[in-house]
Amino acid sequence: MFDILTLNKISQIGLKELDEKYNITDNCDAPDGIIVRSAAMHDYNFNEKTLAVARAGAGVNNIPVDECTKKGVVVFNTPGANANAVKELVIGGLMMSSRRVVAAYDWCKTLKGEGDNVGKLVEKGKSQFAGPEILGKTLGVVGLGAIGRLVASAANALGMKIVGYDPYFNEEFKGELPLDTEYVDSLDAIYEKSDYITLHLPCVPATKGMINAETIAKMKDGVRILNFARGELVVGADMAEAVRSGKVAAYVTDFPSDEVIGVENVTALPHLGASTPESEENCAYMAAVEIREYLEKGNIKNSVNFPNVALDNEGERVSIIHYNALNVMNDVLGAFMKNGVETTGFASKAKGEYAYTLVAADKIPDSVINTLKANEDIIKVRKI
Predict the structure, then answer these.
(1) Among 182, 185, 260, 293, which one has the highest count of C-beta atoms within 10 angstroms of its own C-beta?
(2) 200 an active-site residue?
């Protein structure tokens, strides 16, 4: 029986993937696995028994990934599971950045009680909410991951020209983007060419605060910026000043901050990007499958701290999390040879200074496990 701790309300559609071998609870001090959405885990006290954390979503800022890695806890995310939900809201934000829909809606509410004068007041006041069409405009897409690609395709279908930037872009993904997408090799090129800019990248030290007074100065006057990725990508005070000055015509974000809330031409939403039942179901399903595959078979897919590794072999197997040291492979295989065990499958990959290895055999005696546990370069060993 595996104990699975849920730190948020997780869709039952996903949890149905965990059968009678799983005890799913919201109260457990020593879970085998954890499924989480947005709950903050940086103060969480990990038990030695805990093997994996699955984030039902893409970002893992709420999880202490470095600490998990050192403890041999595999952290999964669910890339692409909420991509369509975010894409749809981004397209809505694109419209709102142009047509001043939110301000116009708020203004209309002030006409309540004007009776027969409402029609005349509407005709007189509507010009203050005029805005441009997106047809023929250039959208700069920063980050061409699952969400960025969907946004680019949808915006192109609405008549926009697409300029894309992603230093880690996989050429295989070009088939998922409009044929006339222009790919550039610098953010400065995005800033120079774009009428609209949409952000779809993680917040890491290299990207934190990337949209600031200096980079905004490189953009077109009247640029419209959408941030449905991470609030920390944008320096709030700099953005507020740029919007007030008119350098930025509109800013739409799913991450409100005190600096931008209430600023005219800023539309701040309460992190609604993935808030659809379909998205929550997709994320929960993927997270549950990832947890199940790792706990039952040792297979890793979509981990943010360890490489993808999988075996299809029948029989027993041993899961080994270790440092990426040259001698470890010899030590692992040596442990099997020393104990007279013939392996039937082997897979190993490294990710930075850490690595993951799966070894299969018809029968794996405890003596092999004990030999591996005694190796100081091996962080965690588990017989499956």
Answers:
(1) 260
(2) no
Closest CA to 76 of 176, 151, 4: 4
Taking the domain 83-268, which CATH number applies?
A: 3.40.50.720
What CATH number does the domain located at 306-384 have? 3.30.70.260
Kind and range of the H or E element at 121? helix 118-125
- Is residue 58 scored above 90 in pLDDT? no
Judge contact between 179 and 231, C-beta under 8 A. no
DSSP state of 211: B
Domains 1-82+277-305 and 83-268 share a fold: yes
Alpha carbon dihedral 343, 288, 47, 1, in 10-degree steps, equals -70
Among 99, 182, 271, 293, which one carries the catalytic annotation? 271
Active site residue 42: no
Is it the case that residue 38 has pLDDT exceeding 90?
A: no
322: annotated active-site residue? no
Look at residues 39, 41, 28, 80 and name the one whose alpha carbon lies nearest to residue 287. Answer: 80
Could you tell me which of 352, 351, 377, 356 has the C-alpha nearest to residue 299? 356
Q: According to the model, what pLDDT value does residue 143 have?
A: 97
**Tokens of residue 224, six digits:** 């419209």
